[in-house]
Task: inverse folding
């Protein structure tokens, strides 16, 4: 297992070949598969290729997003994924998705808090941002719980997912390393020896 960090209830790690069935299960719900259509959720052979491609990427290299598994410690089950994409100038964008059965339990907040902490303390990032559609109230509240502030409201910036669909407004949030209250939160335990 290539663990990146852990929190009280979760391990965040690289995906492994034996995770194919867990990814198929995770992507069965349209709220997951439609959010990240680039992942071949229901094609096990293509998922093996996806995992191999992810394994070859350098963690948090500029302009490369490495998807990481969010794993529940209590049973080793993959409950979602999280990603941090660096722009190469100490800034990054974070994103996450949880399986439908694992929402509203604080796991996305815990995983995102751990990854932001890792980004600031281990990787020395200066700024972490996140975007969501204006209608995604759950994601907006999660960003606010993380201490992120709304920086922009972009009208009709998200194209329709299907012909004849509606353009969606995007809301951007961010937090700076200088604003991050590291002293108030447990530190993620890094598997890389720096955290």
Result:
């Amino acid at each position: 297992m290539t663990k990146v960090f852990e929190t009280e209830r979760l391990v965040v790690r690289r995906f492994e070949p034996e995770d194919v069935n867990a990814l198929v299960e995770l992507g069965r719900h349209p709220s997951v598969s439609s959010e990240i259509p680039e992942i071949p959720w229901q094609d096990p052979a293509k998922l093996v290729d996806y995992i191999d491609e992810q394994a070859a990427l350098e963690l948090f290299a500029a302009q490369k997003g490495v998807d990481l598994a969010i794993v529940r410690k209590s049973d080793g089950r993959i409950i979602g994924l999280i990603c941090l994409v660096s722009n190469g100038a100490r800034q990054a964008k974070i994103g996450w998705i949880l399986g439908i059965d694992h929402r509203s339990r604080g796991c996305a907040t815990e995983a995102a808090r751990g990854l932001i902490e890792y980004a600031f303390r281990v990787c020395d990032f200066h700024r972490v941002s996140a975007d969501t559609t204006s209608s995604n109230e759950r994601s907006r509240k999660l960003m606010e719980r993380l201490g992120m502030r709304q920086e922009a409201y972009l009208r009709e910036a998200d194209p329709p997912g299907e012909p004849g669909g509606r353009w969606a407004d995007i809301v951007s949030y961010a937090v700076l390393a200088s604003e991050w209250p590291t002293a108030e939160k447990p530190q993620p335990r890094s598997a890389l020896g720096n955290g």
Observations:
- The domain at 3-189 is CATH 3.40.630.30 (Aminopeptidase).
- Helices lie at 20-26, 30-33, 44-56, 107-121, 137-145.
- The chain has five helices and nine strands.
- Strands lie at 3-6, 10-14, 66-72, 78-86, 91-98, 127-133, 149-158, 168-176, 189-190.
